[in-house]
Amino acid sequence: MKPRFAIPRGNQRARKAASLPLSPGKFDRILELARGKEVLDVGCVGGEFDVDLERTSHARLASVARSCVGIDIVPDQVARWKEAGYDAVVANAETMTLGRLFDLVVAADVLEHLANPGRFLEAAHEHLRSDGLLAIVTPNALSLNNALKSLAGVRIEVNPEHTCWYDRTTLGQLLARHGFEATEEYWQDYQTRPLTTLALRLRRNLAAHLIVIARPSTTGAGQ
């Protein structure tokens, strides 16, 4: 049987995408959800190693959460976080077994790096309370930058550590197949160029990133 995820067709899907809110920052809504909660931050180290820890997204999450555990696969960087007083653990997102449940699992700029994102979603499911939430931030495969470069025949720069890109439909399918349903969706773009700002006034779905807040599905994973 196909996964139980109803994808709106044609104009209905386009109208839905165009109506989604546009967020100026990746963590605005996630920080609201994290306040006073027990949070798991997956990929807490991030992509830059020599940054001031207090200015990172993990530090921001830890500052508002009741408790915040960060996991990553880079041992020396995890040790740096621990030395700074943070609760950091060396663990793989796809195979983590932390022995506790969380109110919120955050995976910002993580999904596109994974070899098996489905295994991560299953692991996240196992670490969430029944009323818990999963917050995902990932690049939008159909962003303005990608579209313009494709039309112009210019090579699109791809992070060599990325294994895949998602659009709103494929991310929804992935979530449904592994027992999640979206409760909130946002486009996100920093809009650093005037052309981007103008384009996003017309088509928000050309934003650089997708933000999805999802909960464990009441029907379970698709069969």
Total beta-strand segments: 8
Query: CA-to-CA gap between the ends?
Result: 6 Å
Question: How many domains, as an integer?
Answer: 1
Count of helical regions: 8
Q: In CATH, what is the homologous superfamily?
A: Vaccinia Virus protein VP39
Succession of helices and strands = HEHEHEHEEHEHHEHE
Order of strands in the sheet with the most strands? 1-7-8-6-5-2-3-4
Please give a quick description of this structure:
By secondary structure, the chain is α/β, with parallel strands linked by helices. It contains eight helices and eight strands. It has helices at 10-19, 28-34, 57-64, 75-83, 117-126, 144-152, 168-177, 194-202; strands at residues 22-23, 38-42, 67-72, 87-90, 102-108, 128-139, 180-188, 209-216.
SSE layout and pairing:
Elements: H1 10-19, E1 22-23, H2 28-34, E2 38-42, H3 57-64, E3 67-72, H4 75-83, E4 87-90, E5 102-108, H5 117-126, E6 128-139, H6 144-152, H7 168-177, E7 180-188, H8 194-202, E8 209-216
Parallel strand pairs: 1-7, 2-3, 2-5, 3-4, 5-6
Antiparallel strand pairs: 6-8, 7-8
Please characterize this protein's 3D structure.
This protein has 223 residues and is an alpha/beta fold. The chain has a single domain, classed as Rossmann fold (3-Layer(aba) Sandwich), CATH 3.40.50.150. The protein contains eight helices and eight strands; from the N terminus they run αβαβαβαββαβααβαβ. It has helices at 10-19, 28-34, 57-64, 75-83, 117-126, 144-152, 168-177, 194-202, and strands at residues 22-23, 38-42, 67-72, 87-90, 102-108, 128-139, 180-188, 209-216. It has an eight-stranded mixed β-sheet with strand order 1-7-8-6-5-2-3-4, sandwiched between helices. The radius of gyration is 18 Å and the shape is globular.
